[in-house]
Amino acid sequence: MGKFSSNAVTTTSAIVTNETPAYSNSTGYTLLKATDYGFTNPTITAGFNATNGSAVSYATIIPLGNFSVSSTGVLKNATALSFGNISISYTYTYTTEDNASQALNYGMQQLGEGGLLGWAPAIIAIVIGVFFLSYFIGGSGKRYR
What we know:
With 145 residues, the chain is of the alpha+beta class. The chain contains two helices and seven strands. The longest helix is centred in the C-terminal third of the chain and has 22 residues, at 116-137.
């Protein structure tokens, strides 16, 4: 089933500055906002590596070419370098819906695949079968024998 569309759905840009502690390696780090409803189009804008010392300071700039980020918000290193403790800044877009649109979309999902509409052909076949049998076995079909 399709998604209910109305003027209540909006797309908004957002900025995250200095998300810490993050990391960049071959297994990937999922950006914290990646699980937000409608998260899409992440773009890394800055990365800083932590320096050693008594207090963690994110002062060493990491060139943006060292990162890649998927559309689902998984950050990986794009080079052989790995960073275990970084501060990452990024932008992304997300969609929002008012409560009525969310409720309607949820209801449509429940009716759709695996829901009531998924059972509709079986229910219709049973109803037709009952009418067919009741006509020929039951009352009005007897006069045609």
